[in-house]
Amino acid sequence: MAAEKNNVWEMTLSRLDATMDLLKIKPGMQKYLRQPRKTLEVSVPIKTDSGSIEIFKGYRVQHNTNRGPAKGGIRYHPDVNLDEIKALAMLMTWKCSLVGLPFGGAKGGVIADPTKLSANELEHITRRYTFEIIDAIGPDKDIPAPDVGTNAQVMAWILDTYSMDKGHSVPGVVTGKPISLGGSQGREDATSRGCVYTILSTLKVMGIDSTDLSVAVQGFGNVGGNAAKILYDLGFKIIAISDVSACLYNKKGLNPFDIEDYFKKNKTLCGYSSAEELPREEIFGLECDILVPAALENQITEKNAGGIKAKIVAEGANAPTTPEADKILKQNSIFVIPDVLANAGGVTVSYFEWVQGNLSYFWTKREVNLKLRDIMERAFYETYKFSSEHKVDMRTAASMLAVSRVAEATSLRGIYP
Predict the structure, then answer these.
(1) Are residues 110 and 195 located together in one domain of the fold?
(2) What CA–CA distance (Å, rounded) separates 353 from 190?
(3) 23 in Cβ contact with 410 (< 8 Å)
(4) Residue ranges of the chain with pLDDT lower than 70?
(5) 102-129, pLDDT tens digit by residue?
(6) Is the pTM of this model over 0.85?
(7) pLDDT by residue (tens digit) across 219-235?
């Protein structure tokens, strides 16, 4: 029952239904927006380093393309499933709409644990997966990007496989590529930086003129790790960092750069000497000003939401909070920066990379970061204004803005034929 209750697809649909009811969207349009445009399930056979044949399962889902080509990451993780991919594709639609990007939403994934595969095996999985979905993707159709368990190298393999099939180089087929292959400056930490911009905007509207605040970061991957480093450089006190191995805590503050060096050497947070080691779940109950959940879905639930003492929750991850937990956070007057806003920096700079590639004209990192700040701040204040005027929470405001824009685009284009 618990697994069914926390099904991320059902949660996403439930939130969409509530939003569409508030917007008084007609029943026919509601049916349209609930359904993914295209769902692919593919078999990914490879020959392993030992010579045996293994079969992996892969997915690619396009939710909506009425505002532009589909856009969304590809994740490699043992817990990948179709419901998760459908939900994340839908969230990408709302995310792109909210920050004003000319994209629709997509997501992909392969059920695999990249930590247990060699580089050679990862390459074979990537190339075969790309081959299986090759008719669905393209620079004007569906543009993949990195996500959990994938990186710039994986994007380079997708780029090469797609280009070999087409007979010429097509750098625009993916974003998040290495710089030497047409990637954008600032892409690696874009999601984290965008999250930080929304935190700074939140502090402004709350009247907090200080960075001398305590922060707990759940997840020490690309998003959580970079967010911790950026906030640390700005003067925030990082009191806790957690990942799948442990939760590090020091009320006097942690240095995320030192922790990153330790992690690279030891492949775990366990044993780090300058911090107290706590069970992972305890990060949600720590006294702090800002909590950044930057791991996977369904991390803040009705079981732990009541213990959260942070004033601000900035959702660096996708769908980290269940609907039941949302109600508790709202009752406790915790300001939530919803995922479709807080972690939209990644797709925003992906859009920049796509534009730069199309123009064959590339920007400096400073230009990228300034453009990112402008878009994130504009989206934040549009959402906050809507929230204040309509007396709804930030998640509801973000959803209403995003869904209404997609519904308008869908209505204007009509139904073909």
Answers:
(1) no
(2) 11
(3) no
(4) 1-6
(5) 999 999 999 999 999 999 999 999 999 9
(6) yes
(7) 998 899 999 999 999 99
Residue type, 404: S
Q: Three-state SS for 64?
A: strand
Write the single-letter amino acid at 34: R
Catalytic-residue membership of 204: no
- Tell me which residue of 5, 29, 63 sits closest to 301, measured CA to CA: 5
CA 203 – CA 85 distance, rounded (Å): 33
* Nearest 10 degrees: Cα torsion 326, 329, 333, 339: -60
Distance CA 37, CA 16 (A): 16
Given the residues 71, 86, 95, 107, select the one marked as catalytic: 107
Residue 264: domain span: 190-337
The span from the CA of 279 to the CA of 19, in Å, is 36
| Together in a domain, 45 and 74 | yes
In a domain, 413, yes or no: no
Residue 8 to residue 10: CA distance in whole angstroms? 6
- Cα 291 to Cα 284: distance, rounded to the nearest angstrom: 8
Q: What is the pLDDT of residue 3?
A: 38
